[in-house]
Write a structure and sequence with these properties.
about 400 residues; Aspartate Aminotransferase, domain 2; 2 domains; 3-stranded antiparallel sheet; globular; binds pyridoxal-5'-phosphate
């Protein structure tokens, strides 16, 4: 079978593959714990459910406009006003099937082959492949000081005449880092001055802990004209626990948004009208579910961080947002794929290898599951890799013997 350039070069989404592996093992009755997940366990807000149910009851489920329904755009205008203090117009908005599609069509709209796109490491697994899907070149930027927070120097050292865009994801998947407001200010000013696109992937904006806040890029924008190169991405997946609804959006200048709508119109058409109704319900409805999810996650975070900090040999920079931790396990095993595989094979705990996010030696361990799963999962991990562990461990009535190093 002969594949084309894109078919040959684009890899599978590792995180989606993990979900598949989990489902297969679970169906076989294996006592598997998923600490690699990327979605909250809570239910979608009731306002989302009633909104979608009443639309369904009309029996009218037709095509939506390619760039999103009028009502959904109104909801996005409201969201942007409430969360960013910024009034945008419907022409600045495109609604897509998830933040993932919004990002993809944004890149397709702005990139030429051979253009370069910068993003700090560790980075979301999809960025490199999305850039490659456009024939462009991903340029990960590893912070020089060994933290998860880039400096402007890290960024500018990697900018070349081919740099077309910079993607910033704060709160960051997988590190949980929330970049300082000073950095966001500088990067907004720098990209404005240089005429480079700045894509802010703000999908975890509301999931922040211990009083930390994600900086608002609009606070630092000087150019609100149609030449603005700022594109802000958001969606309902994470904060509203609506991953399966697949609704996200982008806000940008009218020319970029129009180009994105043209592309989306040929790719998938507008997102399902039913799912847009659900998103409208969530955004316009009672917001208490967001805060209650945030509080639950804050508590889960505390439990996971305590386990990781008590783990001799593991180095952790505490996450300030998202629902991921990204700890350094290289004192035990430098090859994160090997370590993640050992944990799955031997103690049935799913984690995501750091190498997939551009940082070897780390594991992404999520805290979006239950406290029970976090606690038991961490106990199993510790038993599997700590050389001082006792020789035996029981998982239910299954006795495990530690016969590996
Ligand atoms: C950083 C980041 N951006 C975008 C997305 C995509 O979100 P959506 O479910 O809205 O497509 C994810 C999902 O995991 C993510 O982690």
């Amino acid at each position: 079978m002969s594949l084309g350039l894109i078919g040959r070069n684009v890899g599978e989404s590792v995180t989606l593959k993990m979900n598949e592996t989990f489902a297969i093992l679970k169906a076989k009755g294996e006592p598997v714990i998923h600490l690699g997940g990327g979605e909250p366990k809570s239910k979608a807000p009731i306002d989302a459910i009633t909104a979608v149910a009443s639309q369904l009851n009309t029996g009218e489920v037709r095509y939506a406009p390619a760039d999103g329904s009028v009502d959904m755009k109104k909801a996005v205008i409201r969201y942007t006003q409430d969360n960013y203090g910024r009034k945008v117009s419907p022409k600045n908005i495109i609604v897509s099937s998830g933040a993932k599609q919004a990002l993809m069509v944004a890149l397709q709209a702005i990139l030429d082959p051979q253009d370069e796109v910068l993003f700090p490491a560790p980075y979301w697994v999809s960025y490199p492949d999305m850039v490659k899907l456009c024939g462009a070149i991903p340029v990960p930027v590893v912070p020089e000081d060994g933290t998860f927070t880039p400096t402007m120097e890290d960024i500018t050292q990697n900018v070349s005449s081919y740099t077309k865009a910079i993607i910033i994801n704060s709160p960051n998947n997988p590190s949980g880092a929330v970049y300082p407001a000073e950095f966001i200010k500088e990067i907004v000013e720098y990209t404005e001055k240089k005429g480079i696109y700045l894509i802010m992937d703000d999908i975890y904006q509301k999931l922040v802990y211990n009083g930390v806040k994600a900086a608002n890029p609009y606070d630092y924008v000087k150019d609100f004209s149609d030449n603005s190169k700022l594109i802000v991405i958001n969606g309902v997946s994470k904060a509203y626990a609506m991953t399966g609804f697949r609704i996200g959006w982008a806000i940008g200048n009218t020319k970029v948004i129009k180009a994105m709508a043209n592309i989306q119109g040929h790719q998938t058409s507008g997102p399902s009208i039913l799912l847009q109704k659900a998103a409208i319900g969530a955004i316009n409805g009672v917001q208490s579910s967001v805060e209650s999810l945030r509080v639950t996650l804050e508590n889960n975070r505390r439990v996971l961080v305590n386990h990781l900090k008590a783990f001799d040999g593991v180095h952790l920079i505490e996450p300030q947002g998202t629902f991921y931790s990204f700890a350094d396990f290289s004192a035990f095993e430098k090859d994160s794929t090997k370590l993640s595989k050992l944990l799955l094979d031997k103690v049935r705990v799913l984690t995501v290898p750091g190498v997939e996010f551009g940082m070897e030696g780390h594991l992404r361990i999520s805290f979006c599951g239950s406290i029970k799963d976090i606690t038991e999962g961490m106990e199993r991990i510790k038993w599997a890799i700590d050389p001082n562990s006792p020789n035996e461990l029981y998982i239910g009535d299954r006795k495990l013997i530690r016969d590996w190093k």
